[in-house]
Amino acid sequence: MREKIKALRFADKRKLWVVDSGGRILSSNTDAGLPLPEDMAPKLLSFTDEEGKFDTTIGGEASVVSFSRSPYSKWYYVSAASLDEYNEKTNELRNGLITVGALLLLMNLTVGLLIFYRAQRPIRTLFTKFSRDLDEMKERWERNRLTIRQDYIAKLLHGHGEQVLNGGENEERWTSVLHRIPACPSSSA
């Protein structure tokens, strides 16, 4: 029976026992004569369920013990694994999910940046053009400001001030008094 227990696919990582209703070992995959840990037999025999599990310490190592009661005899089939071995698949699954989550997050970030760059390129082009046009208008104003003033003053001096000043929306901001001085009569006397 010991050879059949050792042939089980998970027997190399776990300790397996077949225990009778008195707590004595009938067979196991461990060294011959290795007894059940002291506190395991009373815990095992105290359960009334057909199967179950509980935590205990075996050889100073935290372990999980699972058992099943035979429906044909009063034997218990007992399996004990260290907590690390018991949680091994869970840890592998957790690490795999963290890796997949990180990869999805990285992919999401990459796609988001690509979409953002493509969306902001036309906006950036529009702002660049607007800024360039504004700079060009400022430059033209600086270049032509003196000419515009001289032209304005010349129109005022030639009596065209009302046409210049009544130019629409800026009408109320400009106040001008035009006084025409008649030419001096020539004194030929």
Structural class: alpha+beta
In the predicted model, the low-confidence regions spanning at least 5 consecutive residues are 163-167, 170-175
Residue share in helix:
40-55%
Report Rg.
Answer: 50 Å
Give the biggest beta sheet: 5 strands, antiparallel
Number of DSSP E strands = 5
Mean pLDDT: 75
> Distance between the terminal alpha carbons, to the nearest Å?
157 Å
Judging from the principal axes of the Cα atoms, what is the shape?
rod-shaped
Helix count from the secondary structure assignment: 5
Query: In sequence order, what are the helices and strands, one letter per element?
Result: HEEHEEEHHH
Query: What percentage of amino acids are in beta strands?
Result: 15-25%
Strand order of the largest sheet: 2-1-5-4-3
